Amino acid sequence: MVQLKSLVRPWIGGSARATSEFSSPNEAINFDKQVIFIAVPKTGTTSVRNQLRSHGPFLVPNPHLNITQLHSLLYFWSLRKTLGTNAQFPTGGMPSDTQLRSASDETFRSFFKFSAVRNPWARTVSLYFRQEGIISHNRISFEEFCEQHAYASDTCNHPTLHSNQLDWLTDEEGRIGVDYVYKVEEFENSLSEIREMTNGRINLQYLVANKNPLSRADRYRDMFTDRTRQLIAKRFERDIDTFRYAF
Prior knowledge:
By secondary structure, this protein is an alpha/beta fold. The chain has 8 helices and 4 strands. The protein has a 4-stranded mixed sheet with strand order 1-2-3-4, with helices on both faces. Helix 2 (about 65-80) packs across helix 3. The radius of gyration is 20 Å and the shape is elongated. The model is unreliable at about 1-10 (pLDDT under 50).
């Protein structure tokens, strides 16, 4: 667990010197709660996003940025807030680019970063029946979908071409960059752990949101043949091995 520190740089936080166009860099970053929630698509995160979402409008509105993108966004947010704001001669109180990067890195390190993952077979079914993004269930069969399902971001409007859910959570060196990952299947049991790790600052409620009545993800096993089951097992092997999922 990271040790949370108070923010001492006015050019990083979400309220001081906010730009007139945007109130926050992205919904995943909440300066007040000192938390970054990485929302992997179709992992049952809508209710968590609703509880932690910062106020917009957002500099980057995509709700499913990965950990590396959010890290970089903290720097660009601070840069945007400082450009064109100097009103003194000689220049006083303005940060250098090195200071901006250092403060952004410290904010990223100190914030509690967490995310959720989902059984890859159940998630495949959820992606097939999704009613937003690229809709597939009314165009191709489920078997065809499994054959073509190459990336974890397939069917997204803004595909990241991540091969696995794990790719949302790892840095450039392949290291997991979050403090905590819970399985959506065990979310209710994870609430107390999240609360304890943040000293009560993140007190999430167990809520269900954005439930798709068409989806058969709750009975996903019925959707697969032996062949399609193996296709998904091979494609998302890293998720299955890392998070110890079984069909």
